[in-house]
Design goal:
Length: about 60
């Protein structure tokens, strides 16, 4: 199995968070992706999913009701 990259070609690093605004990976995760094993890639995707959930929760908390 080959784990596909989460890259969506919106490659802009957010200085405050250190995350890519497109895929929510760190620079270290992005550079490691090409040589990472499938289990390592899945761990990165798990971290991305957790960041996305936090980002979603933060957005919902700030949205006016």
């Amino acid at each position: 199995m080959t784990v596909p990259s989460p890259c969506i070609n919106v490659c802009v690093m957010d200085k405050a968070s250190g995350l890519c605004q497109g895929c929510l990976r760190t620079l270290d995760e992005i550079t490691a992706w090409g040589r990472a094993s499938d289990p390592q890639r899945l761990a990165i995707l798990d971290a991305v999913a957790a960041r996305r959930a936090l980002q979603s929760n933060d957005s919902n908390a700030r949205s006016p009701q």
